[in-house]
Write a structure and sequence with these properties.
The chain folds into three domains: about 110 residues, no CATH class; about 110 residues, no CATH class; about 60 residues, no CATH class. About 70% of the residues lie in helices and about 0% in strands. It starts with a helix and ends with a helix. The chain is globular and about 60 Å long. By secondary structure, it is mainly α. It holds the Pfam family Xan_ur_permease. This is Xanthine permease. Belongs to the nucleobase:cation symporter-2 (NCS2) (TC 2.A.40) family.
């Protein structure tokens, strides 16, 4: 995802010199700011990259400023814009997706605690994150929105900045609410070029990967863990690319809706299956056979 955005997203000029230059400048700004800044200013590396990249994008004509005021000043959401309907296929699909979302939420929360607080996550924190995820999804559907899930980029952002202050996070949430209620604010964020976002998200995803490796290391590199991680990782990377070329086309629509658009679901199934099937004493048995 970060590399896709770095090249310009799904725009017609994907991979153009302008997009690659914007992504590179944004990434270098984040890196240099993180190296040269002192104190609390070091935590603003992503913001600095966004500002520099956005300003350059304006001069390159990559930002249409006229769209910022195109949606009026205030826009209130409509409650139940669509009348509820109940279909067995959709219900089953949503239940499976929520199981996958729960696994992703647990992973994101665990990585957040590990990267931001340098400790193991507690059971209370896991249950709280899952409850919050479900509650927010239930509320969002009242406004015609799809169910929501945790945002992995935030894990990378916290791992980079080490900012876990609740007031700071609440301020960010307030900005997102304002972006929804005030179209100019939302349009401003939406006007950020994909290449600029890609320059920042590459760093964030790298931090997420590092947090994941740290979690794996804490679990130990036993033969059983290595088997689960290696196959899950290979499936996740491989099917991410294969999903774009239609590897799920022969399957029913229900299967496609669950696995095609969300490769995390495939990884979830593979990792859970291996965790249930592989023996706990796999390493001991291998030594005995030798």
């Amino acid at each position: 995802m970060g590399a896709r955005s770095f090249g310009g997203g799904y725009a017609d000029d994907f991979g153009s010199a302008e997009n690659l230059m914007l992504g590179t400048v944004t990434l270098l700004t984040c890196l240099l700011w993180n190296i040269l800044a002192k104190g609390y200013l070091k935590q603003l590396s992503v913001l600095a990259g966004l500002i520099v990249g956005y300003v350059i994008a304006i001069f390159l004509g990559k930002v249409d400023l006229s769209l910022i005021m195109s949606g009026g000043i205030i826009a209130f959401p409509t409650i139940l814009p669509f009348m509820p309907e109940f279909h067995a296929g959709a219900i089953i699909s949503a239940c499976i997706i929520f199981l996958v979302s729960a696994a992703e939420t647990i992973g994101d929360t665990s990585a957040l605690v590990s990267g931001g607080l340098n400790r193991e996550i507690t059971g209370k924190e896991i249950s709280g994150s899952l409850a919050c995820d479900g509650y927010c999804s239930a509320v969002s559907t009242l406004f015609g929105c799809p169910p929501v899930t945790s945002f992995s980029q935030n894990v990378g952002l916290i791992a980079m900045t080490k900012v876990v202050n609740r007031f700071t996070i609440m301020t960010g949430a307030a900005c997102m609410i304002l972006a929804g209620l005030l179209p100019p604010v939302g349009n401003f964020f939406a006007s950020l070029p994909q290449a600029v976002l890609g320059g920042c998200t590459i760093m964030m995803f790298g931090s997420i990967l590092t947090s994941g490796v740290q979690m794996i290391a804490k679990s130990g590199f036993s033969q059983r863990n290595i088997t689960i991680v290696s196959l899950s990782l290979a499936v996740g990377i491989g099917f991410t690319t294969a999903s774009e070329i239609g590897i799920w086309d022969i399957f029913p629509e229900l299967v496609q809706s669950v696995f095609s658009a969300n490769v995390v679901a495939v990884v979830f199934v593979v990792s859970v299956f291996l965790s249930l099937v592989l023996p706990k004493d796999m390493d001991i048995k291998m030594l005995e056979e030798q």
